[in-house]
Amino acid sequence: MSDSEPTSRVPPQRSSSWSSQDRDRERVLLAEFAGLDVSDPRRAVVRDELVTMHVPLVHYLARRFRDRGEPHDDLVQVGTIGLIKAVDRFDPERGVEFSTYATPTVVGEIKRHFRDKGWSVRVPRRLQEMRMAISKATAELSQTLGRAPTVRELATHMGVSEDEVLDGIESAQAYSTLSLDGASDAESEAPALVDSLGTDDEALENVEYRETLRPLLAALPERERQIILLRFFHNKTQSEIAQEVGVSQMHVSRLLVKSLATLRGGMGVDA
Amino acid sequence: MGSDIVLTVPAQSAYVTLARAATAAACAQADFPLDRLDDIRLAVDEACALVIADAPDGADLQVVLTVEGNHITIVVQGPSRRELPVATNTFAWTVLTALVDEVSTDVSDGSLSIRMQASGVESVAL
Lengths: 271, 126
Hints:
Mean pLDDT of chain B: 89
Largest sheet of chain B: 5 strands, antiparallel
CATH architecture of chain B: 2-Layer Sandwich
Order of helices and strands of chain A: HHHHHHHHHHHHHH
Number of helices of chain B: 3
CATH topology of chain B: Heat Shock Protein 90
Oligomer: heterodimer
Low-confidence stretches of chain A: 1-8, 175-199
Distance between the termini of chain A: 32 Å
Radius of gyration of chain B: 14 Å
Number of strands of chain B: 5
Structural class of chain B: alpha+beta
């Protein structure tokens, strides 16, 4: 990636979009954050504000990587992880601008995302076909059974061994192809679920570290965020979500794996 | 049927994929519908991540899967620097409880364990 990385223009913090008030606020917050003990609940609040404040920087940096086949939202999502790491590691006493310090970390996360994708995009053809056949058979059997089929039922229906079905569903998770993750399927037809969800704040009311979780959730692409809320805070099954959102259950499952890994990465697993 | 699948791997995220594969195979045995199977695999992912997070260098992660009829019990455990089990007001706990029927956690003798239970469909067709 590095060979074609465009040179940097003026990041948002140095452009006119930031007032001197914003800059003062940033300085105050960074100094406060550095002085807070890890166990101080105030830390999450300050961290949240610092992250929110610098999300435009992530958008700006993500735009450098446009036209490379990845949705902007996905890049912002991984870039935000880099931003959070930068907030956590920044030392205001070193006299470096925060945006200068954060930029390589954010860009690093985005590049890592491309590297991961590059690896995962090579799905063996046999597995790709098996995965598509399973997806089709799952849809058919769900109709007749009124629930998702078991591996045994799939194997019988498809005339293959249970092992082959297991290989197929494992590959559906281990590899994720760019085309499937793109906005190609149902992104636009997805109903405005968010209306029926209530606000994130209600959903997160009883969760510790919600101050950290909220910006991470907000940075997820809309559909991923909806799926997380539906599955974990509204206790919908994967099949129900698949129907509501208009994608296959396998796709819901894959998006859940991906989003949880992202959230975990951003929060530190403990949270 | 009824006997345990015991998997011991280095407590590193690169090996979690083995736990996932074993979980899928065990869930297939227990006749879990595909969406439930995916849920349980996701729960194992999360539980492994929790144990790995505070595992000392060189530690092993153990996953024990027990299938009885259409019921599965999974215990994920490993050495941990934690002094307290996973708190129930964390996002990780919210995730686990949504994915399996029952979950409990314990820390003893420097080892963190997360125990999860779930049931598949009855063999009678719906």
